[in-house]
């Protein structure tokens, strides 16, 4: 496994856009040391690049209980998977249960953490972009591509989860007095995301799995285009990735998650097992009686039935029965301490310091996006395009579902995406993108006596951020 080490960047400045306000410092500072005092060489700037990926990693809360640290992708399943019809808490208790029952409050600490984490990542990317002049032309282009990929990643998550959000495309320094907290239209956020990913795709090459590459930028841009309804743009990008001989489906579904760096992975956030600084906790939290809040991201019973019907060979490596409570079922894609029955070796000697990488983009997702782009939006119902059918068939063949397909409908594609990408934080976004979130989640909520309404498709702006903005930030409807 490739490691992204936690390199402390020696910069005295504002780490989070979202943590500064009119009264952030009192009295007002008369001097400050900026990033320019540190970033004077190409090697130093690369520490800033690595620092971006460290921000994406987040902090293992089981190794460091400082509540002011950001947990980033390690908290992402709460705001995505547990707001879909896939997963829930084991005991329906605490802040975590607000996600499954659609009763999220603006004071929810998990929501605040993820929001803050994304702006922390944006700050780190903006810092690299502000100091490119210290690198050679060739290396500066690479670092620019990486920084813009990372910034686009964070903004794509923000705009899909919160809608209109503040746009920060530069470093906010301690002495700046023109800070604006107002939210800007989602279209403007998407314009920045698209421009950033286009630059990243143009500047990058290589086959790194844990740093941005051309293929990673193209795959993310394809998903952005699908979200915007630009199906032809997404189709072209997917076809370019498919034509790249460097990517292929793993023969065995298990190997996607337990043979790290395989040819299916396009971009993954790397972790190092048994290392307090670079391990992750989400794998542990999904286990029973191991994590800090053990028993989150457990399967809904209807998800168990769904995978039993549609998962094929993927099912054993998607969920397993809880060893302690037979009526409960756990995610099996990122088990840190092994499973003899499934032939999964332990990734970490201490499950609380898990080293399982988190896969953000993989080839199977690209194949299914290719089908989605071919079907099209609006009046699009199904496709019989031979290349799209080949993409769909490849994913199903790997799952042992080898019956030949002659057409693929949107409903069939959504079923396949749910089965293939279960528990990879894709389901909620898929429901929204396919235009069926209200219908599916309303039915799901009614079945379980939850309280879903259309306003629950967006998260609340954290109350803390509204307070820091002196009211300039407005709240989403329904909160």
Plain-language structure description:
The structure is a single chain. The radius of gyration is 22 Å and the shape is globular. It is built from 17 helices and eight strands. Helix 1 (42-57) runs parallel beside helix 5 (137-162) and helix 6 (186-203) runs antiparallel to helix 7. The chain has 479 residues and is mainly alpha-helical. Strand 4 (319-321) and strand 5 form a beta hairpin. The longest helix is centred in the first third of the chain and has 26 residues, at 137-162. The chain has two domains: 1-204 and 451-479, Alpha Horseshoe (Serine Threonine Protein Phosphatase 5, Tetratricopeptide repeat); 211-270 and 301-333 and 357-435, Serine Threonine Protein Phosphatase 5, Tetratricopeptide repeat (Alpha Horseshoe), CATH 1.25.40. The model is unreliable at 1-31 (pLDDT under 50). A two-stranded antiparallel sheet has the order 1-3. Strands 2-6 form a two-stranded antiparallel sheet.
> What is the count of DSSP helices, taking H or I runs of 4+ residues?
17
Arrangement of strands in the largest sheet: 1-3
- Output the CATH topology of the largest domain: Serine Threonine Protein Phosphatase 5, Tetratricopeptide repeat
Sketch the topology as an H/E string, one letter per element.
Answer: HHEHHHHHHHEHEHEEEHEHEHHHH
